[in-house]
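Worked example 2:
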Amino acid sequence: MFKTIHYMALMSMGILSAIYYLVIGADPLWWIAAGIAYFAFSCLGVTITFHRYLAHNSFKFRFKWLEKLCILLGTLGGTGSAIAWVAVHRKHHRHSDTDQDPHTPMNGVKAFLMPNYDQDVNYRLVKRMLKDPYLHFMHKHAVKVFAAFYLVLFLLGGWHAVVFLGFIPQAGTSLMSVIISWSTHTTGYKNFAIKDNSRNTWWLTILAWGENWHNNHHAKPRLASFQYRWWELDISGLVIKLIGKDLVK
């Protein structure tokens, strides 16, 4: 089980590592590699697979091997296992911006800065996922999966590989989740008049992979693409068209 302490430790190590190498300098190729890893963890893993595929059943993967790979990438993103992430997210939708919402800014800084994976995982919301052997394994052994990943990185590329393909992109993924949770419920505009405080924040379009069109998503949560107006670019929605099928439109 991936616990809150693991989440905070990963974010801290990634941020400190990024600051350190920004000060002393590093080969630009390592920063490019970190950017690619961030796309893999944050966009392919968390945004597309955990959120739109597992949490909302917005599409199906064209290939089973790709589904399993993206679940692994999401797990390595550092924001919890697929089972924990989906359970917390479904609770967020059920109780958005209320005192039962696990990560709304309305409940203070701690609510969205430190997601409580130890208490906020309601397994009744993910009964079907618990029956999947692969998802269950990733949930139960998430910490071991991380340890194996770091070991492989170290053996292949040394400490730099661990930092730039592990710590830094993982911290970026976690930090962006925090920024999205805060900004999309406090700033921006609404296309749909719904009860919660969800909003669209255009300035997060690139780094958030389209998750920033949050009001659109809360109004129609099952859609594979969060784009509503022609200029609301949804990078994840475009990627899903390439790797997915049976998209909910």
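Residues 4-245 form one domain. The chain has a mean pLDDT of 92.
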